[in-house]
């Protein structure tokens, strides 16, 4: 059977989103800025796409309460610019995302940056949501107060849903004060040495905002501190002392490379030879850089060696040993959070899922060449039947986001 | 209960752990909301997660409603038994299974008390952040179900921000894990939905929590102000200065009178309002911010500023604050504790409206609350002997709904339970509530898991909110309300 070419609807209000859901029969895809289009399972061909990028802008910002409500299609970057005028921010290091990722998309993909160490991810910053379900029901939960324990926290259900329950149309976020001063401290070394530094750092009272190892030759540990203008230099001094020889303060550009690797442009591994682990025992897992560069536009046939980006999470202390065993060509590793983003040859994705599961962790395929056919998720969670039951309750005809959770459902 | 069903429970748990003696089952007839009581048919006291699953499977097979119970300190009737149902008490699952300092986390059975977590973590310089005032006795299972918070959740967040994973027995008796070893999650955050679900989605049998490093320093001050509004302005200015205190608590004259009378903690009796501000962090940051806070207090006409000079003095300031609830009994024969939230910027306005409403009702209202996150705990004072009960209950509900009208929430930390289910339509539309019910049906299609709680049902809505009666543990001086 041939399908008509999918239509794209671009509603400009919550009501129009609801009309679009009600008036369009069949399977619907939801998109924000499309920056995570290739993440997770491959979406099945929809009958129509609801593009939320027209549903953009701040609805209300209450600076005194440090809350803001926004239309779900609002690019985080634009939101941050507006908040900065009031000395506030959404404490998600999405400032580095220059690709226009939207608030709704970030909630739906359960994303978080390095500062999740202190501020948590989007799940911890969202205090209210409004979502349109498949039957046109508009469901609202939460509100403009950070403390609220009335009813089920529906925002959590949306977090990580990849659009399977329906389009978010409005999101209320809690804000934090923008830091008065920020410092970035770097120290070179392989991941196991970095893990040792992070262990000591976390046992110290220095309160790092982020601690990420970035692969390279031999790799670099980046630590971010935030604080007062007069006091931060003192703390920076204490941190330099704690890390010892080779530690130095660098500019914020240290994070740009980290962001590029996290975003993981598939098929463009780090040009440098990367060494994930070079322990004294010589357990070096040096990968071949440049192997199988794929066409980012994804035209050609799948090159099994082409790079795919996998996001993994496990207990923090297990991360460095886990990474050492992966065929990674580029890595960013939150050694205090246990969350890492790795670029691996496309053919190795299944093996990565297995290794992560064996370490008690979880993994999901992120960016990849279009043609790559690799499993998006690792072993199914024990709560899969429950997840399906909730999905059936909210979207009985499975209209939304078919394919995102393949091979699970 | 059908004796054959009872014997299934006995076969599973042994006769000693299946209670049907009416005198003993009565012990479980209510939680901290002592105005509602229902005697359960049976009380089951499993010792392992598998036993819990076994109990739930028997309930599922016979469609018997069950209610999980931790320490029974809930203040909204969440653990109130249901008629012809069983109570599954979790106090015997009370082992700290693991403290893992390298990964800064602990794995706990649900009956471990909140304070025991910090006690187990302390040798490693770690602690568990959420700190409800009932922490000496309330259980982590109850904390998960209520998404509990405490004075320090302004900076550190609630239970939901500190739980990595939970092992749960679902209402069909199956056992699943929600969440995982890291914050990275797989698919929709079902753990987040479960947190704060008030025992309506299943029973928690193990919890993995994040532990934080004990801060380098803590600085606490007590400041008096010429008006509640001035105190409220100080809170706003502290926040506007980009400072996130560990805690900011406010008390009005009535609350101070009661607390000082009870504890002699050193509060001023002639001040209309007092603030307790606590900062924590590294030495440098704390000192810098502390100086700023003092300056802000001065700017708003602070009449007395007392800085705790020692850990004992700090404990003393908190003792007065934490005793305020129970101490109100000294100045009024009866009172109702309310728990609503308003946007912080509307605090002064709301407090003024509450005062007007009190005057109109001819009743006094004392205020002691978490000012930093707008979580009010107005105490409606009345005398049942003088026939003021109904008026007080009405005023209390009016205050809760006023909070919603101001853009806030019906509950900040005590949950909805049976107590506030009837007020839910004031906060949520019919569609919102219907969708929550659909989510619930996804977990519990047969409606046997703590039925009648959280979401409004016509039966409950015929009942009235209850007035304050001290929890037996409060009377025993073991816990205090905050
Ligand atoms: C190169 C690159 C670098 C990146 N760097 C970072 C980084 O440093 N830090 C960081 O935190 N993130 C980063 N990201 C993450 C990424 O930008 C976001 O996670 C992404 O999801 C943003 O949203 P979007 O609008 O582009 O989503 P889309 O790609 O449009 O959609 C993603 C998923 O969300 C669903 N969805 C989108 N909008 C809605 C909605 N309103 N309601 C319901 N479901 C919806 C879609 O159906 C889809 O399943 C990066 C991504 C890339 C490609
Ligand atoms: C004096 C006093 C002060 C208080 N101060 C605070 C405070 O500062 N902050 C705050 O948030 N709360 C406070 N509370 C309320 C109460 O202590 C908390 O809600 C607490 O988390 C309840 O824990 P519990 O073990 O007593 O649970 P219970 O009262 O036994 O149960 C509460 C709810 O949790 C469910 N439940 C219990 N165990 C489980 C489990 N293992 N699995 C699934 N569901 C379960 C029950 O079914 C019920 O719905 C206070 C109470 C009192 C009496």
TrEMBL record, chain A:
Any one Gene Ontology MF annotation carried by this entry is: FAD binding
User: What does the record give as EC number?
Assistant: 1.-.-.-
Q: Domain of life here? A: Bacteria
Residue limits of the FAD-binding PCMH-type domain? 1-178
**Pfam short name (any one):** FAD_binding_4
Q: Which SUPFAM superfamilies match?
A: FAD-binding/transporter-associated domain-like, FAD-linked oxidases, C-terminal domain
UniProt keywords, alphabetically: FAD, Flavoprotein, Oxidoreductase
Q: Which InterPro entries match?
A: FAD-bd_PCMH, FAD-bd_PCMH-like_sf, FAD-bd_PCMH_sub2, FAD-linked_Oxase-like_C, Oxid_FAD_bind_N
Alphabetical list of PANTHER family matching this protein: D-LACTATE DEHYDROGENASE (PTHR11748), GLYCOLATE OXIDASE SUBUNIT GLCE (PTHR11748:SF103)
**Protein's name according to its UniProt entry:** Putative FAD-linked oxidoreductase
Q: Which organism is it from?
A: Pseudonocardia autotrophica (Amycolata autotrophica)
